[in-house]
Amino acid sequence: QVQLVESGGGLVQSGGSLRLSCAASGFIFSSYAMSWYRQAPGKERELVAAITSAGGSTNYADSVKGRFTISRDNAKKTVTLQMNSLKPEDTAVYYCNTKGPWGTPYWGKGTLVTVSS
């Protein structure tokens, strides 16, 4: 079955960097777009960044443009989110996501990122 396992979260000071990784299994990774979402306490889950199946195109939320970079390694079946210049408002649980052939969303369990001021 589809499995997405996030790692790399933690506590970082404002202005710092973190690198999140998502290890995928159970599907043909190279055939599907991948995304990172986040959910802050008391807020709805929001799209942070997305990347097409071959990695040729990316999309970012306005709030992270210029600070975050999404990338993927289809040979290793991983998708990565490099987060620089972190701000306290980036504090959230970050989720890896993909959509199956019928549009079914799949989610990892998430990894917590806490940015202290």
Structure in words:
With 117 residues, this protein is an all-beta fold. The chain contains no helices and 11 strands. The strands form 2 sheets. Strands 2, 4, 5, 6, 9, 10 and 11 form a 7-stranded mixed sheet that branches. Strands 1-3-8-7 form a 4-stranded antiparallel sheet, with no helix packed on it.
Radius of gyration: 13 Å
- Tell me the fraction of residues in β-strands, as a range: over 45%
Low-confidence stretches: none
Series of secondary-structure elements, N-terminal to C-terminal: EEEEEEEEEEE
How many separate helices? 0
- Tell me the distance between the termini: 40 Å
Number of strands: 11
Q: What characteristic shape results from the CA principal axes?
A: globular
Oligomerization category of the chains in this entry:
single chain
Structural class category: mainly beta
Q: Strand count, sense and closure of the main sheet?
A: 7 strands, mixed
Please summarize what this structure is:
This protein is mostly beta strands.
Q: What is the element layout, followed by pairings?
A:
Layout: E1 3-7, E2 10-13, E3 18-25, E4 34-39, E5 46-51, E6 58-60, E7 68-73, E8 78-83, E9 92-99, E10 105-107, E11 111-116
Parallel strand pairs: 2-11
Antiparallel strand pairs: 1-3, 3-8, 4-5, 4-9, 5-6, 7-8, 9-10, 9-11
What brief labels describe this structure?
117 residues; mainly beta; seven-stranded mixed sheet; four-stranded antiparallel sheet; 11 strands
